[in-house]
Fold this sequence. Notes:
Layout: H1 12-24, E1 33-36, H2 42-55, H3 64-68, H4 72-84, E2 88-95, E3 98-106, E4 114-121, H5 130-144, E5 149-155, H6 159-167, E6 171-172, E7 187-193
Parallel strand pairs: 4-5
Antiparallel strand pairs: 1-2, 2-3, 3-4, 5-7, 6-7
Helix pairs in contact: 1-2, 2-4
Amino acid sequence: MLxxxxxxxxxxxxxxxxxxxxxxxxxxxxxxxxxxxTADDWELAxxxxxxxxxxxxxxxxxTLAEELAFPEALWRERAAGNAxxxxxxxxxxxxxxxxCGMAVGVRAPLTGPVELNALWVAGNVRRHGVGxxxxxxxxxxxxxxxxxxxxxxxTTSSALALALYRELGFVHxxxxxxxxxxxxxxxxxxxxxxx
Length: 195
């Protein structure tokens, strides 16, 4: 998918992405590669994020409706910040030149833990190592930046995500978590030590 194909407005952005992507992944080869999000990827990052929100509305802190209203300048700012890699970083998992997953790590303040945000893997490539690779990439960036902990919130109804995080060494902290998505789904606060 070319970035220029994401110029349509509203929910159709996510639907265009999803239709194009799901046609691509009917092949048996599910290999992928990771790459950093660049400043020029702002429109592609927007498309993937909107597809994620449409696919899993209870998994994220913001709703599709909220992010559809974001101005272009905010999407550009997010991508530029992720490309800088100082306070945040973003990764795409790419298959045949098309994103099949995304994750973002945010560190604010710059001396605190890194928050794993916006992890999403397309449903038809889950359980093929994409999520693991994205989480590990964010953890490696966090360690390189001097962070000693990566934290996250995950909905209690997301059995696959909970299993992945536990397998990667994340533990429930016992701290209160915000609810996620349109229905404010119950969530757990988890963290992993990088020391």
